[in-house]
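Q: Could you write out the predicted structure for this multi-component system? I'm mainly interested in how the pieces pack against one another.
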Amino acid sequence: MTDRDQQAADGTEDPTREGTTSADSATSDESATSADSAAGSAGAEPDAVSGVDSEVAGEPAVVAESIRRSFGDLAVLSDVSFEATAGTVNCFVGPNGSGKSTLLRIVAGLLAPSGGRVRIPAGEVEADDVARGRTVGYLPQTPSFRPQFTLAETLGFYEELAGVDIDPEDVLARVGLDAVADRRMGDLSGGMTRLFGIAQATVGDPPVLVLDEPASGLDPTMTEHVGTVISDLADAGHTVLLATHELGTVDRVGDTVLVLDDGIIQVADAPDTLRRETGSETLTHAINQYLVGDAGGLTVRAGRREGSDE
Amino acid sequence: MSDADGATESGQRWTDRRVGQHLAVAQREFDTVVRTRTYAALAAVFGLIVVALPALGGLAGYLPLVLDLSTPVEVLVPVLAFGFGTWTVLADAQGGELDVIRTYPVSRGTYVVGAFLGRAVGLLVAILVPLALLGVATPVVREPATSVLASHGTVDSPAYYARFVALTCGYALVTLALAMAVSSLARSRRTGAAAAVLAVLAVVLGFDLVVVLGVAEGLVGPGTLPFALAASPPGAFRGLVLATATGGLLETGPPAANAAASLVGLLAWLVAGLAIAAFRAW
C-alpha cells in the first residue's frame, strides 16, 4: 500500500496535496501565446531517479490561464483555467471529445493554444533550450517506440536527450519492468508499453508529468499497478496531470478531479468533496451531475461549434 | 570560481550535451537501419545491380567502369536514398514518438541533423560496399583496354574511380537530405510513399526534362547549359563526374558541365533539404 492509499484509508490525506484549482469562466482577451512550458533550471543537472525537489511541494506547479483552442471553427477549449499544486495527482475527466487530450498536449508544449497560456513556474528560469532540464514528461494516448530497440536502449536514448545520467534498471523498476529491460519494445504488450511510456516520462525528473490515459485498455491488475505507480510518482514530488476514463483510479489516487465538458472545467475538487457536495455514493454519479446537458453519463460527444448553443 | 570560468564550464556543458544529443539520435537511426530487414534488402538489391551491370559487360578498367556506372548510379542512388530516408521523421511522427521526443530539451535542428548522420552512415555503407568490391575486382579481372582510351590518349587510373566513388557518396547525401525533407513534409505513410515516388521521379527525370524543354524553347543556350544542368542534383553529379572522373574522355564539344557550379548546386540541394526537414520536423 502506498502512502496515498494509506492516507485515503485513514482519511488523513495531506492537505498540502490538495490541488488548488479555479474553474472561473471569465473570458480573457490576453493575446494568444504558446505554452511557455520551457526552461528548467539553468545549468542544473537534474537527478534522474531521486525525485523532484521536495521544497516545491505545495507550490503551484502548473498554472493554466484562460486556455482556448479551436480547430478551424470547432472550439474544443473555450476558457480553461486551473492550477495544479506540486506533488499532486490531477485527473481530467470528461466525455470523449471534451478536449482532455488537447489540453494535456497544450500543457506539454506540443500544441499552441489559440488563446491564454500555461505557466510552469519550475521552468521559468532563463536558460537556453539545451542547457535547461526537462520540464514536462509526457505519455501520449497511444505510446509507441521503435520496436527494434530494447527497453534499456530506448531509455538510454532518452537519457542522452535529457542530458542526465540514469540507471535504466532503476527507472524501469519504478514501473515494475526492470526484469524485462533487455526485451525488445516490439515484444511488449500494450500495457507494458504504456508502463514503459510512464517510465520514459520520468527520465530527467521533470517536475510535471502529463499522462494521457495511462490506464486505457489495461486489465484490472495492470490498472491498479498503474495507479500505484502514479501515486508513487506524486509522492516523489512530481505533479501529475492525467486524462482518464478510469474513475476507480481517479478515486484511488486523484487529489483533484477536474471535470472538463463543453469547453470549460465544470468543476474541480477532491473526489470526496465531489461526492459529498452532490450527495452521490459513487464518483461516476457525482461527475455526471456536472456534465452539461448530459445526465446520462460519460458519452461520446462531438466538438462544439463556436457561437453555437449546442 | 570566476564568472569567466563559470561561463566556460557552462559553455562546455552546453557543447557536450549538444554533441551527445546529435550522437544519440544518429546512433538510433543507424541502429534502426542495421536492425531493419527492409533496409538490408534494399542495400542488397542495389549492390547486386551495381555489381552486375559492369561485370556482365566485362571489367575493362577504371575509366570504363566509371562510364558504365554513371547512369545507373544516377538513377539508383536516389531510389536507395529515398528508401533509407523517407521514414525517418515520418515514422516517429506517425508512431507518436516524435511527441515524446519534443518534450525533451532537443532542438529540431539537432534531431534532423542527427537523424541525417545516422541514416547517412547506413546509406554510405550500402553504396560503398559494392563500389569497393568493383574497385578491388577491376585490376584482378581486367580485360584488354578499349581503343577509345587509346585514341584519346587517356591513361586509366584508379584515381578517376576514387573520385567517382566520392562524388557518388556526395550525391547520395544530397538525395538523402531531399528524402528527409519529404519525410518531414508528409503527414501520413501513404502521402509519404507517394511523395517519395514523385520526388525520385522529379530528381531522376524531371529536372533533366525541364532543361531539355528549356533548350528546345531556346531559353537555355550553350553558354547557360552547364549552369542549368548544375541546378539539378543528377545534373550536378553528372557534371562533376564529367569534369573530374573521366579524364577528359568525353570533352569532344562545347563544355557540358561546370564543376564549380555543379558543386554549388549539390551543396545548395543538401542545405535546402536539411533546412526544410528541420523547419517542418515539428
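A: Regarding packing and overall arrangement: Residues 108-141 of chain B form the longest helix (34 residues).
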